[in-house]
Write a structure and sequence with these properties.
The structure is a single chain. By secondary structure, this protein is an alpha/beta fold. Helices cover 52% and strands 8% of the residues.
Length: 335
């Protein structure tokens, strides 16, 4: 019996997943011509092709395990195509899938694609996502302490690496921090479809950017004041900011040196496990590098300063206009 070649791009979160999914959606017809199916409904494909934030082409079903879903996909694969599925949700379900390899191993030729990134970048980005999407109003230091200085993504990635080795599962691990500009192209190359990569549509594309420091400060304050009454206010405002200024330079949150020391100590075992799977020039940092975190540029040109002020003013206007709209025109039950 022929096995179905199945690529699972599992994220993890904040590693260029939205850009990868948009490029796959845009190229879905070209991929199909190459015998590679990226199964996605037309409405979702159109949204992803317009560089909107989507959750990929796979969705969990509470009543069906990942193993059962993948087996159903292979049974319906009448053309014996290679299939690629992409979703950050897969990252958390992979351990159960690997533990059940005896159920699917005779039918699926599986290759897992997993991205990782620098631990301090990941915690900063995860914190931003909580502010942008979930109404978080705690400060970064508080967030890190609530996590006991542990990056759950790196801990899970290390667990997945152990299981992939144990169950002899083909895989590729990409350091997103080294490949943030070309990770989508790398995925296309990996699945044997580099010629289908939509360079014209993806060149310079920015999807779901992080907030600038001033935007983040404003949103934390707004979340503190209004999130309880308007639970989706953070999503509404952050979406407006990203739509109006998609290319605004984002700022990485500053983590204190004392906290960084604890972060690297707590995550050392996971980082070492991940690095054992990466080439020496692709590995994640295992300790804080002095002066690595961005500092204010005191030598900016007059033009740069003028542009930054204009961007800040536009951000403030977008926040004000969106907040006013939410508070005055949207019924509370729909927010």
């Amino acid at each position: 019996m022929n096995k179905t070649k199945l690529f699972l791009h599992i994220g993890h979160g904040k590693t260029g997943t939205s850009a990868i999914q948009s490029s796959l959606a845009i190229a879905s017809e070209k991929l199909a011509a190459l015998g590679i199916e990226y199964p996605i409904n037309a409405k979702l494909r159109d949204r992803a092709s317009q560089l909107e934030i989507t959750s990929g082409n796979w969705k969990a079903k509470s009543e069906t395990s990942l193993t059962e879903q993948l087996l159903e996909i292979t049974r319906n694969n009448k053309n014996n195509s290679t299939i690629i599925l992409s979703s950050e949700s897969l990252f958390w379900l992979i351990p159960d899938l690997l533990s059940r390899k005896s159920d699917w191993g005779d039918f699926i030729d599986l290759h897992i694609i997993m991205a990782v990134r620098e631990v301090e970048e990941m915690l900063s980005s995860e914190y931003q996502q909580l502010v942008k999407r979930h109404g978080n109003s705690m400060l970064l230091g508080q967030f890190i302490r609530t996590r006991n200085f542990v990056s759950s993504h790196h801990a899970k990635a290390a667990e997945i690496i152990d299981l992939m080795s144990q169950h002899k599962t083909s895989n590729t691990i990409i350091n997103y921090s080294k490949h943030r500009k070309d990770i989508s192209r790398l995925v296309f190359k990996l699945i044997g479809a580099e010629e289908a990569y939509p360079e014209d549509k993806m060149a310079g594309a920015v999807i779901n950017r992080s907030l600038s420091r001033k935007e983040l400060d404003f949103l934390i304050m707004i979340n503190k004041l209004y999130h309880k009454e308007f639970p989706s206010i953070s999503t509404t405002i952050s979406d407006a900011l990203i739509k109006r200024q998609p290319n605004l330079e984002a700022g990485q949150c500053r983590i204190s040196e004392k906290q960084l020391e604890k972060i690297y100590k707590k995550n050392e075992a996971a980082l070492q496990k991940i690095n054992a799977c990466l080439d020496s020039n692709e590995q994640l940092s295992t300790h804080s590098i002095p002066n690595k975190q961005p500092k204010e540029d005191t030598h900016s040109s007059a033009e740069q300063i003028r542009r930054m002020r204009e961007e800040e003013l536009l951000s403030v206007k977008v926040i004000g206009d969106t907040l006013l709209e939410v508070l005055t025109t949207k019924p509370k039950q729909t927010i």
